[in-house]
Design goal:
By secondary structure, the chain is of the alpha/beta class. Helix content is 51%, strand content 13%.
């Protein structure tokens, strides 16, 4: 599966790269709520948590569905403004001003996306206008707990009140911990944005997207960007533009704003913890499937200890050589077994390093 962006007719000057302090604060809140998603930020999480005011921590829980599962499109509010190619604010206050410019309908629909599983990539009325969607939103919020239900009820009844609450909360987070972090992060993000902008100017969109992530590809003939993800979705630049927003707190999440009527945005991580290209979802599925068979697991046990020929494996496990050969073919296709020739013998051995990466690759794949 993948998220696709139709970029037919997209002019080069309508592609922009810019950091967003609001988006990075959204990722900071997500990381504090789900530190397991971000193992290399454990030190930062521990430091912030240790000095976090208990009242602010409690307020953070009140609306955590906006950032816990992933993070809401509200944190990239500039994409929802008319004009086709608005940029994020240079400061958090400027970004929050852009958030204030969203209509109540846009704000509520984006805020309830994860609570209520509302469709986001097709036109239609939102929960403020559609009584059926409103009932569904409250029913699903109730299933997630009384706190979430109370917040959703207030959001649907008094959007301006919740919008004011959220702005005040985000400014309090800025004062408590984010301003210090942003002062360290903003320079690196600006450097990455300049680098990607230079790639766009000199090499074109395909090269810039390749530098964003190996999971992002451009089919220039079809005029389509594909983002390799387990989830699916589609959007188009239309008469607007494409925005690329770097994040230092976001790895391994590679997010795509594909809300109907909003500018497409790629929110991409900078500086992954290693240089190896992540496997595609198809490759990951192939590897997991290859290891799901008990016979192949048994063969892997032997191949992890030493290199064996097909006939040696057949004899050791009471199987025929063709049976072993078929199972080895599946493991080789998945990239889990290496083959080398020694004289007239062909030896097979488990690629231990590749297997050791599976847990990391699986986590990255499902969180991408």
């Amino acid at each position: 599966m993948s998220v696709t962006i139709d970029v037919t007719g997209l002019r080069p000057e309508r592609v922009a790269v810019a950091p967003s302090p609001l988006a990075e604060l959204g990722m900071a809140l997500h990381t504090l709520s789900e530190p397991g998603h971000h193992p290399r930020l454990q030190g930062w999480v521990a430091g912030v948590t240790a000095r976090l005011d208990p009242h602010l921590a409690d307020r953070m829980c009140e609306a955590e569905f906006l950032w816990r599962t992933t993070f809401s499109d509200l944190f990239l509010a500039c994409a929802g403004l008319p004009g086709g190619a608005p940029l994020p604010g240079r400061t958090l206050a400027a970004d929050l001003d852009l958030l204030d410019k969203l209509s109540d309908e846009q704000f509520v629909a984006a805020a309830l996306e994860f609570t209520s599983a509302l469709p986001c990539d097709a036109p239609g009325p939102g929960p403020l206008a559609d009584a059926g969607l409103r009932r569904r939103a409250l029913k699903l919020a109730a299933a997630r707990g009384p706190r979430q239900l109370r917040f959703s009820e207030r959001l649907l009844a008094e959007p301006p009140r919740i919008r004011a609450w959220l702005r005040e909360f985000l400014l309090d987070c800025d004062e408590a911990f984010f301003a210090e972090s942003w002062s360290r992060l903003s320079g690196q993000l600006a450097t990455d944005a300049r680098h990607k902008t230079e790639l766009l100017r000199r090499k074109g969109l395909a090269q810039a997207l390749s530098a964003v992530s190996p999971a992002v590809t451009l089919d220039e003939t079809a005029g389509r960007i594909s983002v390799d993800k387990i989830s699916g979705g589609r959007t188009a630049t239309g008469d607007g533009g494409l925005l690329l927003v770097p994040t230092l707190l976001g790895w391994p999440h590679l997010l795509v704003v594909h809300r109907w009527g909003w500018q497409p945005v790629l929110h991409y991580p900078v500086g992954a913890p290693d240089l190896a290209a992540p496997p595609s979802v198809e490759q990951l599925t192939l590897r997991m499937t290859a290891l799901s068979h008990p016979v192949r697991m048994l063969l892997c046990r032997s191949l992890a200890r030493s290199a064996f020929t097909t006939s040696e494996l057949a004899q050791a496990h009471g199987m025929t050589a063709p049976e072993v050969s078929r199972h080895l073919g599946v493991l080789r296709k998945a990239g889990l077994v290496t083959t080398r020739r020694r004289g007239r013998y062909v030896l097979h051995q488990l690629d231990v390093a590749m297997v050791a990466r599976l847990g990391h690759d699986f986590l990255e794949g499902v969180l991408r």
